[in-house]
Amino acid sequence: MHYVEAKSLLTQWGGMNLYRGCTHGCVYCDSRSLCYQFTHPFEDIEVKRNAPKLLEEILRKKRKKIMVSTGSMSDPYQPCEKELLLTLRCLELIERYGFGASVITKSDLVLRDIELFDRINRKAKAVLQMTLTVADDRLSRILEPNVCPSSRRYQVLKEFQRLGIPAVVWMTPILPFLTDTEENIRQLLSWCFDAGVKGIISYGMGLTLREGDREYYYRALDRHFPGLSQAYRDRYGNAYEVPSPYAAQLEALFHRECERYHVLHDPDACFRYMAAFPETQRQLSLFDEGVNAP
User: Fold this and answer.
1) In Å, what is the CA distance from 79 to each residue of 90, 147, 240?
2) Could you list the pLDDT tens digit for every one of the 294 residues in the chain?
3) Residue 69 and which of 8, 92, 125, 261 are 20 to 30 A apart at CA?
4) Which are the contacts of 150, defined by CB distance < 8 A and separation ≥ 6?
């Protein structure tokens, strides 16, 4: 772990990454790809220690309220967050200034801040984005070794549901020859529907592999599933898109079940929902009071 002073933080779309790199060890992680130009080992977490200061400066000056999101490149709730508290401090600022918050994570550490999410959601809007891609906990511990298994993430979703905080699940990637089974997809969907998620994001049934990510993934396959990386090479070569042989059937199942349970399942629709900042009841109330004032 090492520290940097960031010069900027929030993108024009309201996204930010407080950490760069990750220690979850997920074998399929696209963020390892060379195109992201990491200048340090992926597990040597780069910490933007001035992130809360930068965020406060931005939020104080911003005239229009937006959703602020984090986690697209690096999980905001990886183990170092327990001590560093960058995510917590940024969420506190988001609540203080009346903005919305959306986080992407695989970690149950997010439960530490659930009351803060609840307060943000009551004032504006909060969305939990949780990755669920491997229903079998034994397999999850191999593919995502340093983070809680999927069954625990399902329980996290239930806790957020209890407080009425909306959630969107990333059901991706689906790994050919490992997780591309009807049994896996049905179990993941069952958890999602039971937890009342607002939407599920799936980019087909497969994964993407780029230089850097591909090599790491194949080394993991060689350790845990001898011969499987060769099956990938034989079928896909160096392709970027790596669809399951059963993609068509699994996608049909996915869309059919989401329609049945009235869950958003088009990625663009999910993103529009998460990006939309609502007018809060408090704002409407203040407006009404102003109109009716003598």
Assistant:
1) 17, 9, 30
2) 999 999 999 998 899 999 999 999 999 999 999 999 888 999 999 999 999 999 999 999 998 999 999 999 899 999 999 999 999 999 999 999 999 999 999 999 999 999 999 999 999 999 999 999 999 999 999 999 999 999 999 999 999 999 999 999 999 999 999 999 999 999 999 999 999 999 999 998 999 999 999 999 999 999 999 999 999 999 999 999 999 999 999 999 999 999 999 999 999 999 999 999 997 434 444 444 444 433
3) 261
4) 132, 133, 134, 135, 137, 140, 188, 191
d(CA 33, CA 164): 36
**What DSSP line would sit under 178-218, residue for residue?**
TT-SHHHHHHHHHHHHHTT-SEEE--SSEEE--TTHHHHHH
The residue among 113, 15, 107, 139 whose CA lies nearest residue 67 is 15
Contact 74, 55 (CB under 8 A): no
Residue 173, preceding bond cis, omega within 30 degrees?
yes
For residues 220 and 25, give the distance between their C-alpha atoms in angstroms, rounded to a whole number.
10
Phi-psi region of 68 (alpha: psi -120 to 50; beta: other; left: phi over 0): beta
Q: Per the structure block, which two tokens stand in for 10? A: 């929030």
Q: 103 by DSSP, 3-state: which?
A: strand
Counting Cα atoms < 13 Å in the Cβ hemisphere of 55 gives: 29
Which candidate, 90, 162, 166, 80, places its Cα nearest to that of 128?
166
